[in-house]
Amino acid sequence: MTLGWEVAGLIEKVGQGVNEFKKGDRVYAMIGAAGGYAEYPACRPRIWHGSPQASIGLTQRARHWPGIRPGRPWWNMARSNMGKKVLIHGGTGGVGHFAVQFAKVKGAEVYATASTDSLPFLRELGVDRAIDYKTEQFEAICKDFDLVIDLIGGETQARSWQVLGEGGRLVSILTMPDAHHPQAAGKTGTRFTAMPRGEELAEIAGLIEAGNAQVYVAKVFELNEAAQALDFLSREHVHGKVVLRVSH
């Protein structure tokens, strides 16, 4: 089995009947379980996005945005959050740093949690309130929020019910929130997972190329250092994405 969900590079070969791409096109995609840790990954055309813009390097194109099951992307949900209050747990990582920026673009008031040494990075991303989870209780700071994005799980997820107002939503990338929690009444919980959509990548690319969002790369490893890259992710408080580079 080959791991890896996200890829970026130049097309080497197109399949029969594929007309929207050609050899040499700069593209990027979230290819799901197809195996991105490879020199020549393959995927269906509908989940690629190609761009004529050269402003984003191929290393920076290794990115994605997760959607919500069943079939309703968080990106679409964010459109309804203009002027609303959003709490993002783990706002500095590969998913979190995009979540912060996209929520800000959509007009939300954004609070986010991180470790002490990561607070300056949160502020650089534009959060309205950076919360140090080591020294502060987020539930003492956040009241009547509309949305919580949970990238941490466990006790953090359970405690998040109490910061939501009536009709608020708790969305987790890890486990389905407990709808029977004593403080879940009048609120909804959802688990989301990644959904490969080329049209969403195109919209996100437009934000980045317009300067309304930024891709942060924490560290670059060579492809044959995939094990070290995963170990780095497990040990460090990573700011942004970690990239595997194919060298020829």
Protein architecture, described:
The protein folds into 2 domains: about 5-65 and about 195-245, Medium-chain alcohol dehydrogenases, catalytic domain (Quinone Oxidoreductase, Chain A, domain 1); about 65-195, NAD(P)-binding Rossmann-like Domain (Rossmann fold), CATH 3.40.50. The protein has 7 helices and 12 strands. It has about 250 residues and is α/β, with parallel strands linked by helices. Residues about 60-80 have low confidence and may be disordered.
What is the gist of this entry?
By secondary structure, the chain is an alpha/beta fold. The protein has seven helices and twelve strands. The two termini are 23 Å apart.
Spans of 5+ residues with little confidence (pLDDT < 50)?
61-79
**Helix/strand order:** EEEEHEHEHEHEHEEHEHE
Tell me about the biggest sheet?
7 strands, mixed
Q: Provide a count of the helices.
A: 7
Distance between the termini: 23 Å
Give the number of DSSP strands.
12
User: Which CATH first-tier class of the largest domain would you pick?
Assistant: Alpha Beta
Specify the helix fraction band: 10-25%
CATH homologous superfamily grouping of the largest domain: NAD(P)-binding Rossmann-like Domain
Structural shape: globular
Beta-strand portion reads 25-35%
- Average per-residue pLDDT, rounded, comes to 82
Number of domains: 2
**What is the CA-based Rg, rounded?**
18 Å
- Structural class of the secondary elements? alpha/beta
Strand order of the largest sheet: 4-10-9-8-5-6-7
CATH architecture classification name of the largest domain: 3-Layer(aba) Sandwich
